[in-house]
């Protein structure tokens, strides 16, 4: 099949490599707001450049599209793909707010097309194993879940106003992972944020460090923390604590951790630098799954509605942070 890749930036480059290696992809057509950037990436991976995004939809003859453009453009491109009858994969978020997300999902529903949202942790080997352990009952009753997402360095200042903030951009992955791991919904949140780093976080109305306590519908407690300043390296971990056993996702050789114990492990020589290194295999698996779904060989592993539910939790956390109070999800959106 012929795939149209929209966006030739950081995520687009990552997905271009995965798509060219995926079974069933005969040709990749790459478009970007900067045609020169699309041409450079296309040459690097052996793809065909498009002169514009519009060309992908009108004359490139694509069978599906992968959306890896700036977040603000996602809603419009999802709508355009749906109206063209094309299966679409879109990096999160569908939109930066609930209303925009719902509007895009209504377009997809009306068209009857496939929309897969990009939550790559669902395709990571560690998360898959932990989900199986939890669902099989091996851990017993899970009473506590702890999530950590820490960037090694902050993003550029001009990214922040377009990101949606730390809860929507970063912790939304943890919110989705918790729902997917447990099969439970979040009912209430209490969130706090802090700024100890660069002023541009505060100027954008964002925070550089955050913590949230989530209550699931079965009473399980979840803590989720995130920061943009983790100089030791990129760190993503999820701990599942049950009455019978305790499992940790992300506790591996490259995890940027140093034990304080005399006989404990020291800092790894090559910690993960960023999400692209940490989840390289998961991104490839995610795109391969999309190609199979778009070809009608498998179901949709992460429908767009999952993006709405994770964003709903992030929205509640933002309200909680601003108003310094617990917030029930039923009262948001």
Automatic annotation (TrEMBL):
GFO/IDH/MocA-like oxidoreductase domain: residues covered: 127-244
Annotated ranges, domain Gfo/Idh/MocA-like oxidoreductase N-terminal: 1-119
Keywords: Oxidoreductase
Family: Belongs to the Gfo/Idh/MocA family.
Family matches, as PANTHER family: BINDING ROSSMANN FOLD OXIDOREDUCTASE, PUTATIVE (AFU_ORTHOLOGUE AFUA_2G10240)-RELATED (PTHR42840:SF3), NAD(P)-BINDING ROSSMANN-FOLD SUPERFAMILY PROTEIN-RELATED (PTHR42840)
Protein name: Gfo/Idh/MocA family oxidoreductase
Annotated source species: Streptomyces luteosporeus
